[in-house]
């Protein structure tokens, strides 16, 4: 009855974590993939106003023109116009449309491992073959590793900077070097930049700045804490955007109307005060763990991905859960099970309590 297509997707890892979580009472929850602050007030007010003013109908499939213009202006280095922009139902919507438009049966998709779970499964769903490039222990692709993963069937290279689940963020030079390899082989880069607002040192570097055959996906979910509002965008060459819009027309139709109006205002909103808080949280968690764990200091996003003492992230996460601390085993995001993911989008108190438990567990093997 059920198609092979959906059967190829295995959600058991993450489901197991959620099942465990639902049985925990008031856990110290360091597993959450969204900011701990609420949507900034002016953005909320704008959404309410939009609802009251009657913006409750479909918008054009491509999204509201002023929002597309505003997004295009951010990609002035591409001379982007609204024709290069599609407003999507979150970055998830943009990811599904990108895979549907770009990946064909048998195409290979290079995915850096660890990875955000959707890449692997959308790739399989659309008939592609994920080719994982192991990026342990520093969690960054190198041009050499990308070059050696390329075959005649390679269609796409997925990049995600800053990254979920590691917090790794590429420098300008690293992006230049990797995109030169993609260019040499004429491979499209699918760049998920949803965490671009959370960068703690230096600047976020858009991949498209160095390679015009990039499909950039970004949005509002994380930067403005509006994960439930479902607005994101894709920026790419016009021919790709047109195809994505065609599929959007027959699937999502459009991103939520009121949320697009609010997103337009959000584009001018400054979240630097939250960024300072998140940098302090990053420092607290990294500083708290580095004595007892092998761990990289994340430069972006709000995740950190330490190695589990003993090298079994599943066993370690179970021990943490037994102490009422919820973390996610690395296997959910990787072909390896040696690490675990912590989200520091949590209160300072929970971070402090979580760090204390993790250190106790590390010392009492
Ligand atoms: N990409 C990455 C790397 C993510 O972590 C997430 C959310 N967890 C998404 C995409 C999906 O974002 P959205 O809520 O905008 O669909």
What do you see in this structure?
The structure is a single chain. The chain is α/β, with parallel strands linked by helices. The chain has two domains: 4-39 and 271-364, Aspartate Aminotransferase, domain 1; 58-266, Type I PLP-dependent aspartate aminotransferase-like (Major domain) (Aspartate Aminotransferase, domain 2, 3-Layer(aba) Sandwich), CATH 3.40.640. The chain contains 13 helices and twelve strands. Strands 2-8-7-6-5-3-4 form a seven-stranded mixed beta sheet, with helices on both faces. The chain has a three-stranded antiparallel beta sheet with strand order 9-12-11. Helix 8 links the parallel strand 5 (154-160) and strand 6. It is globular, with a radius of gyration of 20 Å. The model has no long low-confidence stretch (mean pLDDT 96). The site of 4'-deoxy-4'-aminopyridoxal-5'-phosphate has 13 residues, from helix 5.
Can you give me a brief rundown of this structure?
The chain is of the alpha/beta class and 365 residues long. The chain is 40% helix and 14% strand. Helix 6 links the parallel strand 3 and strand 4.
Could you list some keywords that capture this structure?
single chain; 365 residues; alpha/beta; Aspartate Aminotransferase, domain 1; Aspartate Aminotransferase, domain 2; binds 4'-deoxy-4'-aminopyridoxal-5'-phosphate
């Amino acid at each position: 009855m059920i198609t092979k297509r959906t059967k190829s997707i295995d959600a058991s890892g993450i489901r197991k974590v959620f099942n465990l979580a639902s049985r925990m009472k008031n856990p110290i929850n360091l597993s959450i993939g969204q900011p701990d602050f609420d949507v900034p007030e002016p953005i909320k007010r704008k959404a309410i106003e939009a609802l009251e003013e009657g913006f409750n109908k479909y918008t054009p499939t491509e999204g509201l023109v002023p929002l597309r213009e505003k997004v295009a202006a951010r990609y002035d280095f591409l001379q982007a116009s609204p024709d290069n922009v599609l407003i999507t139902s979150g970055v998830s919507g943009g990811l599904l449309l990108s895979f549907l438009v770009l990946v064909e049966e048998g195409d290979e998709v290079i995915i850096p491992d660890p990875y955000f779970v959707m890449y692997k499964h959308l790739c399989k769903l659309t008939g592609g073959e994920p080719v994982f490039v192991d990026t342990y222990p520093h969690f960054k692709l190198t041009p050499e590793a990308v070059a050696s993963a390329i075959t005649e069937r390679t269609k796409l290279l997925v990049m995600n900077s800053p990254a979920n689940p590691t917090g790794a963020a590429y420098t300008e030079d690293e992006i230049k070097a990797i995109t030169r390899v993609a260019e040499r082989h004429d491979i499209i880069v699918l760049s998920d930049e949803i965490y671009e607002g959370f960068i703690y040192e230096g600047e976020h570097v858009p991949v498209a700045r160095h390679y015009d055959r990039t499909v950039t996906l970004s949005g509002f979910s994380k930067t403005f804490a509006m994960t439930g509002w479902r607005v994101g965008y894709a920026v790419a060459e016009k021919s790709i955007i047109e195809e994505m819009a065609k599929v959007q027309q027959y699937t999502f139709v459009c991103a939520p109307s009121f949320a697009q109006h609010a997103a337009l205002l959000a584009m001018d909103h400054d979240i630097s005060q939250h960024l300072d808080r998140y940098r302090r949280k990053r420092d607290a968690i990294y500083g708290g763990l580095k004595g007892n764990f092998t761990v990289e200091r994340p430069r972006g996003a709000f995740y950190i991905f330490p190695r589990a003492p003993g090298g079994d992230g599943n066993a370690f996460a179970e021990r943490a859960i037994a102490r009422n601390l919820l973390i996610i085993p690395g296997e959910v995001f990787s072909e390896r099970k040696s690490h675990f993911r912590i989200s520091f989008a949590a209160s300072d108190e929970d971070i402090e309590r979580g760090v204390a438990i993790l250190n106790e567990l590390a010392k009492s093997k």
